[in-house]
Specification:
349 residues; alpha/beta; 11 helices; 12 strands
Length: 349
């Protein structure tokens, strides 16, 4: 992994901020630059220059999260994908979400006044599902503090009450082994732990849930054959989850294809082992400094009330985030034990 990272990444500082934005590997940068140069020269001017690349990224993402490419739709953001799900719920439906959940997963439901959105603590999510709950929407790993949801408990409780499940895997896909097919929907922004450019996002939908989802923004690319769907009403929408595609940004997906291939090469299990070991090392160091972190088993580590130390870390060349008052640090394949110790040294000073 050290050799691979040396070939693909070139951070100029101690970068511990993948929860905000993942670093682009060199192969992704090269792919984007190559397409941009082709477009500048007039050699790549139409949509026909990118569909194969998009489908390769779609298939690669599917393999990373354990579903077939036929269950994956592509787009630009979590909010857009979530809005499709929100628009498909009947009036009066209850949506259950954790308190403090990321806004892109919450607001598409809130703006539909005829839906009922209910908030509960994350640790009480499974036990709060009721017979009238239509959908449970939550992140596998919380953005603000790195806490992990009890995926199995929520899935089991939702099934018992006939509720659909929507899981945001933005802070987990790319390091956490996950079978997305065990949930009705998952949404994932690509620019964090998937190391993709901004403007890439993925929606997974079970075959059963696809029958209930309305393709409200279906354009010509969502046709079964896009090239016969360019004028007038689309005669035949794609038979797969591709009918929920948002028209894609080819430059971004040229980079995404390369980034996802790199993650596949490394393997999710190896990424999980590497990232959680670094996070555990950081938590242990924080304990020795008398700075107890939020209890979590993820690669995202948050320390309540320590956000004021972010300027000190930044001045020392350590890039981290502040979220909800927490100092937030996150680890991925390009990080090492030396990065952990560097951050701890600054916090001890």
């Amino acid at each position: 992994m050290d050799t691979l990272c040396g070939d693909e990444f070139a951070p100029e500082l101690t970068y511990l901020n993948t929860s905000k934005t993942g670093l682009l590997p060199r192969r992704a940068v090269a792919a984007i630059q190559a397409l941009a140069e082709e477009k500048a020269a007039g050699r790549a001017t139409g949509g026909d220059t990118g569909f194969e690349v998009v489908d390769a990224a779609r298939a690669s993402f599917g393999r990373l999260v354990g579903v077939s490419e036929g269950r994956v739709a592509v787009g630009s953001s979590v909010a857009v994908h979530t809005a499709v799900i929100a628009a498909s719920l009947p009036p009066g439906a209850e949506v259950l979400v954790p308190e403090g959940e990321f806004s892109s997963l919450v607001n598409p439901f809130v703006v539909r006044d005829e839906l009922r959105t209910r908030y509960v603590p994350l640790e009480k999510l499974a036990q709060s599902i009721r017979p009238d709950t239509a959908l449970v929407a939550f992140s596998a790993v919380q953005s603000a503090d790195g806490r992990s949801a009890d995926l199995a408990a929520v899935r089991e409780a939702a099934a018992a009450h006939g509720a659909r499940t929507l899981v945001d895997t933005t802070q987990s896909a790319g390091w956490l082994p996950l079978n997305a097919g065990t949930f009705d929907y998952t949404v994932t922004a690509g620019y964090k732990f998937l190391l993709c450019p901004h403007g890439t996002a993925f929606l997974t939908v079970t075959e059963e849930a696809q029958r209930e989802l309305r393709p409200i923004h279906a354009g010509w690319v969502a046709g079964e054959d896009p090239w016969v769907s360019t004028y007038g009403p689309i005669g035949e929408l794609a038979h797969s989850a591709r009918r929920f595609d948002e028209p894609m940004a080819f430059l971004a997906y040229h980079g995404a294809e390369q980034s996802l291939a790199l993650l596949e090469k490394v393997g999710i299990e190896a990424l999980h082992t590497h990232g959680t070991a670094l996070a555990d090392r950081f938590r242990a160091g924080l304990g020795r400094l008398g700075l107890p972190p939020v209890d979590s088993d993820s690669v995202v580590v948050a320390v309540p009330g320590l956000g004021h130390r972010e300027p000190d870390l930044r001045a020392a060349g350590v890039d981290v985030s502040v979220r909800a008052g927490n100092l937030r640090v996150s680890f991925h394949l390009y990080n090492s034990a030396a990065d952990v110790d560097r951050a701890l040294d600054v916090l001890a000073g």
